[in-house]
User: Fold this.
Amino acid sequence: MGRFLSSASLITTATIACSEPPAKVVASSAEEPSGAGKVEQSETSRGGSHEPRFAQGERGAEPPRAASAPMTTNDPSATYRARLVEQIARRSEPWPGERWDPRVLEAMRTVPRHAFVPGVSFSLAYDDMPQPIGNGQTISQPTVVAMMTQALALDRNAKLLEIGTGSGYHAAVVSMLAKEVYTIEIHESLATNARETLESLGYRNVHVRHGDGYAGWPEHAPFDRILLTAAPPTLPDTLVEQLAEGGILVAPVGPAGGLQQLVRYRKHGGKLAEEDLGAVMFVPMVRGE
Ligand code: SAH
Assistant:
């Protein structure tokens, strides 16, 4: 297998305000996520005794909500998550001129990232770094997940399409702030794993499809929000067509293996206005067979 790309890392601090020295906060673009073999197995995640569950009443027809989905009080991963969120919030602005939305931080504090990266310790799962998830793909750096989630400006009525399910973690985070989440993954085994993880944790408003995100999900279009977690060289027309009027699309756009720009697009009168949110590095959005 080739090198992992350091998916979804912040690359510069020039365009993204950062209150800490870059070495502490910014994942290096040359970072190669370490394999699961190096970690302490005593703290393993999926299926382990520490796996958090939503409290009984939270797992019915209603999706989990940031305000009302407490983890069980004896959940040892909560401490790691709280520390991660403190670290994210230390970057006082997700991008210049923007303050962190407490709802986004609460979602980050609630979703058990370790359940989406099986076989790694809590400390690695809650490190602000990408981690390998199989098929040469990575789960994004938590700070980037938080930034992109905030950039989507979600509300509880939003129908969202995500391209690049990966582990399902980012889908879980946005599902806490949206109504329905439709997510597409090109690798079948990743789609299957993500579906199982999301189901086992009770995220009932996330729908996973194995397929090529370049086609979008026409049966459920238009979408109020679209999130790309793999980088296309240019924004795919099909996805722009599937974005509702007044909708927001957040995507890393740029060359495979190089620096990309994280862009927020808003659709008004059929036209797109764009806002540059900083330099990032994501795995490429590949074309299906
Ligand atoms: N959001 C994920 C991480 C995404 S990594 C998480 O939270 O874990 C990017 C993902 O995009 C990879 O899993 C990759 O397989 C997927 N991908 C790449 N090209 C794609 C395409 N054309 N359609 C759907 N998924 C794609």
